[in-house]
Specification:
Blueprint lengths: L14 E9 L22 E6 L3 E3 L4 E10 L12 E8 L7 H15 L6 E7 L3 E9 L3 H9 L9 H13 L7 E8 L10 H13 L3 E7 L5 H11 E7 L5 H12 L2 E12 L3 E7 L4 E3 L2 E10 L3 E10 L7 E13 L4 E14 L2 H7 L2 H24 L3 H24 L3 H20 L3 H20 L8 E6 L6 E6 L47
Parallel strand pairs: 1-17, 3-17, 5-6, 5-8, 8-9, 9-10
Antiparallel strand pairs: 2-4, 4-15, 6-7, 11-14, 11-16, 12-15, 13-14, 16-17, 18-19
Helix pairs in contact: 1-2, 1-6, 3-4, 4-5, 5-11, 8-9, 8-10, 8-11, 9-10
Length: 535
């Protein structure tokens, strides 16, 4: 029925490109860097490593934040793209009956139309059982594949875990490093057959990621479990979207495939080696394996023109005024899908110590500071969701209002330093937090608001993108009065469900200009490791 696949992705990476640069050496004044970062160029990923505080106060042990940024190069033509190996996994349970299922089929058909003969596609459908509607095959006879999709009808329950597992199995049949391998899940309901916890779905996502299979999880309507979907996508290297209306499905699928068809690099290995005088505290808003002073950061793929960054909180030992000290060496290797080579990049960053408070403040890297504050505020937003789930509405509102206040102040700082576009992004996230604070007490809107919050949290945490350069995260309220459009660069990792564990927000070394210190109630959150949120 379907054509067999021999090996359209079988060419091997035959050589290695090694590009080692001095990276970014940070001096007393931000502008006085001794070497430039590796910028994205034709067929080469860019690497930039910076500190929030390139100058620190002498004689004091302080916290600093390290930002590692990767930027994808441009893809000049679609003919240059690598083949995709994609499994479309559709929920056809009873709740999908009617317009939802029809729009889902339209979206899947639209996606198939965007594939070329070199691509591999499979279609898996599930209700209480799982069926491989279209086994993994080259997308040569697209009319036949679309005909099979049109015949899908609604069934019964929702075996979500099994559906994603089977999608992964179809991708695995022709798994190649030269292909972009992904499972795309669409569901409108709860997982009520088989494994059904966020931990189960997170484990599945991690397992697939280890095989270089990324997972996108799309939630439709108000009945799906957003914690399951976020758990799957946040560790699965794909995207998550809250799709309120079935009418938006085709548009969302097109955004998903915009990114899928523009991947320029994958199989990243990011290694950070901190200096002896620097202690890693934690990853902020992303996954990372910390062992001693060594950190490994996972990244599935990078899209054309996309920026993805990772933030590491570090503690730096005291230094003498006027001295300079290494902070970190960063090495990155990845598969270049344009040149079919294994490329390597390297950079490092240093810090200078000064007795002058004015010198410390004037040297602050405002752009890096702003991106770090986005991730720190996102942690507070996640905790606000957990507090609201636990009935602590006033505390949740306090955190959301704090976010709006801090983001507004950082936005003004960006605008004062000519970072208008970044300031506008901060402003939109500020508006979202302000709206959430106003409606979070309304029980009638909580299901809707919670899905919007979780989707926005994941988008900020992942720096999610559908178009290869930015993501449009739209929170439309048909039940309220808000429409917040958030455009964000870049990707990281993370995990779900929400935990209300210890989150430290005290940033003594980051206080600059008009930025007020955080209220004591927001500088720490009591630990409660057993408070996983389940709707």
């Amino acid at each position: 029925m379907y054509s067999t696949f021999s090996s359209s992705c079988s060419s091997s990476f035959s050589s290695t490109h090694s590009i080692r640069t001095p990276g970014l050496w940070v001096a007393a004044i931000v502008a006085a860097s001794l070497a430039a970062p590796v910028t994205a160029s034709a067929e080469q990923v860019g690497l930039d490593v910076r500190l929030v505080n390139p100058v620190m106060k002498a004689g004091q042990k302080e916290t600093n934040y390290l930002r590692i940024s990767l930027t994808g190069f441009d893809m000049e033509a679609q003919e240059q793209r690598s083949p995709v190996n994609v499994a479309i996994v559709l929920d056809h349970s009873g709740s999908m009956q009617g317009d939802k299922l029809e729009q889902a089929k339209r979206a899947a058909i639209t996606a198939v139309d965007r594939l070329s003969d070199q691509d591999i596609v499979s279609v898996v459908i599930y209700d209480s059982n799982v069926e491989v509607l279209v086994p993994a095959t080259k997308a040569v006879d697209r009319d036949q594949i679309k005909s099979a999709i049109r015949k899908i009808s609604a069934g019964s329950s929702t075996a979500l875990f099994a559906g994603v597992s089977k999608g992964g199995a179809e991708v695995r049949k022709f798994l190649q490093s030269q292909c972009v391998n992904r499972v795309i899940l669409l569901s409108d309901g709860l997982a009520n057959v088989g494994p059904d916890s966020p931990q189960d779905l997170e484990g599945l996502g991690r397992s697939l990621m280890k095989e270089d299979i990324s997972v996108t999880a799309l939630g439709l309507g108000l009945g799906y479990n957003e914690d399951l979907m976020v758990a799957l996508a946040s560790v699965g290297g794909g995207n998550h979207a809250f799709i309120e209306s079935a009418d938006d499905l085709v548009g969302i699928f097109n955004k998903e495939f915009d990114g899928l068809l523009s991947v320029v690099a994958n199989q990243f290995e990011i290694e950070v080696q901190l200096a002896d005088s620097v202690r890693p505290v934690r990853m902020v808003g992303c996954d990372g394996d910390i062992e001693g002073r060594s950190i490994r950061i996972p990244l599935a793929q990078l899209y054309a023109q996309q920026e993805r960054y990772f933030v590491v909180e570090v503690e730096v030992d005291p230094g003498e005024s006027g001295t300079t000290r290494p902070v970190a060496d960063v090495e990155v290797s990845y598969q270049n899908l344009q040149t079919q080579t294994r490329d390597m990049l390297a950079s490092h960053v240093e810090v200078r110590f000064s007795e002058s408070t004015a010198a410390v403040q004037s040297a602050l890297d405002v752009e890096t500071y702003a991106y770090c504050m986005l991730q720190l505020s996102n942690e507070r937003n996640r905790h606000a969701t957990a507090l609201r789930d636990a009935g602590e509405v006033e505390k949740a509102q306090e955190l959301l209002n704090l976010n709006a206040q801090v983001l507004n102040e950082v936005e003004l700082q960006c605008e004062a330093n000519g970072l208008t576009e970044l300031g506008a992004k901060l402003g939109k996230v500020e508006e979202s937090n302000d709206y959430q604070a106003r409606v979070i007490a309304d029980e009638s809107k909580w299901n809707y608001s919670r899905k919007g919050m979780r989707a926005l949290q994941n988008s900020l945490q992942q720096q999610q993108t559908y178009s290869g350069i930015r993501a449009d995260v739209q929170v439309h309220s048909k039940q309220g009065d808000a429409k917040v459009n958030v455009e964000l660069k870049g990707g990281g990792g993370g995990s779900a469900p929400i935990q209300s564990g210890p989150l430290q927000f005290s940033l003594p070394s980051l206080k600059i200009g008009t930025l007020r210190s955080l209220p004591q109630s927001a500088t720490s959150v009591p630990a409660d490791d057993d408070s996983s949120v389940k709707p």
